[in-house]
């Protein structure tokens, strides 16, 4: 297995991983993004995200088999300055427990460290205890007093039109 920066032609496999994550997170119909969206937003002149993939050689020896991905983007903190947000870290269910997630996680942290960033932040579901234990063992702080807030498209429309 190797971990590398994703290429545009990896996006179909990355989208399949995103869909698998949605099923794991009990939101199987929530994914609206397309391969074209990923290609346009991640590989244009001003990419909105960076993606790392973990790959194994395919069984046929032709091409690659992406078994995990991590998608990140830069944010700005009024307290810290430029930071990194880890949007998703995904490993195929059949491949979990083999160190793939940790290899991707380490790649993300190295990416942030190499750029002198002051913080990497991400969300984790409260029922994902395995991930929480892993993050805490790595030295990350899982904040108990902050809440994630989202306003989806319909709520945004309702608010603007109220």
Automatic annotation (TrEMBL):
InterPro entries: Acyl_CoA_acyltransferase, Diverse_Substrate_AcTransf, GNAT_dom. The lineage of its organism: Bacteria, Pseudomonadati, Bacteroidota, Flavobacteriia, Flavobacteriales. Keywords: Acyltransferase, Transferase. It holds the Pfam family Acetyltransf_1. It comes from the Bacteria. Residues 1-161 form the N-acetyltransferase domain. The keyword Transferase applies. The keyword ATP-binding does not apply. It comes from Aequorivita aurantiaca. This is GNAT family N-acetyltransferase. PROSITE patterns: GNAT.
């Amino acid at each position: 297995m190797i971990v590398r920066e994703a290429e545009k032609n990896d996006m179909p496999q990355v989208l399949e991983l995103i869909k698998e994550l949605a099923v794991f997170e009990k939101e199987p119909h929530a994914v609206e993004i397309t391969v074209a969206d990923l290609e346009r937003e991640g590989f244009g002149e001003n990419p909105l995200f960076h993606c790392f993939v973990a790959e194994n050689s395919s069984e046929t020896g032709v091409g690659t088999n992406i078994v995990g991905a991590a998608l990140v983007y830069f944010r700005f903190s009024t307290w810290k300055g430029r930071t990194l947000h880890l949007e998703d870290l995904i490993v195929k269910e059949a491949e979990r427990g083999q160190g793939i997630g940790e290899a991707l996680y380490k790649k993300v942290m190295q990416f942030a460290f190499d750029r002198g960033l002051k913080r990497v932040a991400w969300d984790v579901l409260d029922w994902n205890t395995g991930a929480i234990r892993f993050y805490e063992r790595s030295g990350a702080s899982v904040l108990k007093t902050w809440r994630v807030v989202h306003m989806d498209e319909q709520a945004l429309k309702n608010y603007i039109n109220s």
